C-alpha cells in the first residue's frame, strides 16, 4: 500500500504505522484519517501486532487547525472521518500498541488512548487541549479518560488543558508504561514481538471481554466470558499452550 501522510510496513508479523507529517507535528488532516483507517482495515495476512507511532518530535498534535479554520463542519468530520478511524483501531484483528514518542495533544492524545496498549517515552506528554480553542474533548476522549483515571482527574485534564507527563500518565493508570527515551524504541519493539509471537485469538477475546465489562452487569459479563472462553478452548493455540506446559517448553503459538 502506498500512502502520502503515513508510512506502513510489515516485518516479522509486526505492522508499523507511522504518522508522517512531521512539519505539522503529525496533525490529523482528512487524508491522514482516511489513510489510517485504510491501513488498519486492510491489514495483510499474517499481521499479529500493530505499532502506531509518530515521526519527528511529536506523536500527534491533534486536528489540523488549518482544516478547522476553513469552516469545516466538525460534527460531520467526527462522524464521517474520526469515528471510522477510531473504530478501525478498536476492531483491528491484531492488538494495537500506541508508541507515543512525543507530545500527544487533543485528538492526537485520544488517538493514542484508544489503542490496546500505550507505551510512552518519558519526554512525551498528553494534553487535552480542546478548551484552549473553545472546544470540548472529542475523538473518544470523554469515553476513554474517565474510565482510565476517574472523573476528577479527567475533569482537571479537560478543563485546565494542562500537559500530563508520561510518568504521571503511567502513575494514574492512563497508559501502560513510560520508558526512558534512550530505551523507548527497544522497549516498544520487545513488547510488539511478545504480542506478535503470542496467542492472537486469545488477545482478541481479551479485548472483547474488557470492552464488554464497562457496560455489562456481572451475570452478562460471566456469560460473555464463558462464550469467549469456549471459543478460545477450541483453538490450536490453546492446545499448543497446554502441550507446551505439560512438556515444560516454551509454546509456539500460531495465532490460530
Q: CATH topology of the largest domain, which one?
A: 2-enoyl-CoA Hydratase, Chain A, domain 1
**What is the 3D shape?**
globular
Task: Describe the oligomeric state of these chains in a short phrase.
Answer: single chain
CATH architecture of the largest domain: Alpha-Beta Complex
- Largest β-sheet summary: 6 strands, mixed
Q: Termini separation (Å)?
A: 25 Å
Q: How many beta-strand segments?
A: 10
SSE run: EEHEEHHEEHEEHHEHEHHHH
Low-confidence stretches: none
What is the structural class?
Answer: alpha/beta
Name the CATH class of the largest domain. Alpha Beta
* Domain unit count: 2
CATH fourth-tier homologous superfamily of the largest domain: 2-enoyl-CoA Hydratase, Chain A, domain 1
Strand content: 15-25%
Number of helices: 11
C-alpha Rg (nearest Å)? 19 Å
Average pLDDT rating: 95
Q: Strand order within the widest sheet?
A: 1-2-3-5-7-10
Helical content stands at 40-55%
Organism: Paracoccus spongiarum
InterPro entries: ClpP/crotonase-like_dom_sf, Enoyl-CoA_hyd/isom_CS, Enoyl-CoA_hydra/iso, Enoyl-CoA_hydra_C
Family: Belongs to the enoyl-CoA hydratase/isomerase family.
Protein name: Enoyl-CoA hydratase-related protein
